[in-house]
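Problem statement: downstream parser choked on a complex file, so we are re-checking the raw output for the adenosine-5'-triphosphate run. The parser issue turned out to be on our end (a line-ending mismatch), but while we're here, posting the original submission so the record is complete.
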Amino acid sequence: MIRLEQVSRTFQGRRGTVEALRGIDLDVREGEFVAIVGRSGCGKSTLLRIVAGLLEPSAGRVMVDGTPVTRPRRDIAMVFQRPALLPWRSVLDNVLLPVEMFGWKRSAHRDRAIALLEMVGLGGFEKRLPHELSGGMQQRVSLCRSLIGQPRVMLMDEPFSALDALTREELSGELQRIHMELEATTLFVTHSIDEAVLLADRVVVLSPRPGRIQRVVDVNIPRPRTLGRNEHQEEVARCSAELHELLMAKAAVPVPTDVT
Ligand SMILES: Nc1ncnc2c1ncn2[C@@H]1O[C@H](COP(=O)(O)OP(=O)(O)OP(=O)(O)O)[C@@H](O)[C@H]1O
Ligand SMILES: [Mg+2]
């Protein structure tokens, strides 16, 4: 469904060239949920923006559903860290924004928008304005907005990282349910190992400077998964430990021994 072939990206900065990504090869199956983890600055957002068609790779190419991605597409939706709702529009009108932008028929999508809001626990909030909602509720609205066009591909860049821990856990549970129901192919960037192990079929670990695929960890745990007590805790612990080791290995800074 999503295929990255030798994707590289460099940026020209004032202090010279930054090699953000080098030689990324990745195949994501239809309906698969792939998490991307890695230290700050290792190129996760750059990778997502390239798949979204918001940024061109310096080399290599990205195919979605057999066609190269060269610009943003209607079948690819992106969710960012902050909800970015339009403050003067109601919850419902925010969810329907893509419908207007793409010139679809509003009446044809209204019921679906209401059903999506219902699904994320925001039934009855259609007429509210964003500032009347909590951060978690706003991010739910933004999730509905990304789902309104029934995207086949969902790209999510740390969508829950601005939320408190419990809201975050609640929303990742909701995302799991949505994914099980709608089966959109998903690339999900996160700093949270728990979130990655809860949600993903595979976790891609990127190493920094240049950003390369260090390892791909399979998560073979049946869904629905939970962060609470469950019969697969051994496998959860194994995956989490492996990811911890991979991520922390890069943090080891050699301690100078001959300093006096
Ligand atoms: N527009 C840009 N111009 C110059 N350099 C950039 C640009 N965008 C990203 N970079 C550089 O590319 C590298 C990767 O950045 P990116 O934002 O993809 O990292 P990230 O993994 O998403 O980090 P974080 O976890 O902090 O969000 C960084 O070194 C960053 O400084
Ligand atoms: Mg980022």
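For whoever reads this later: The pocket of magnesium ion (ligand 2) is lined by residues 44-45, 157 (CB under 6 Å).
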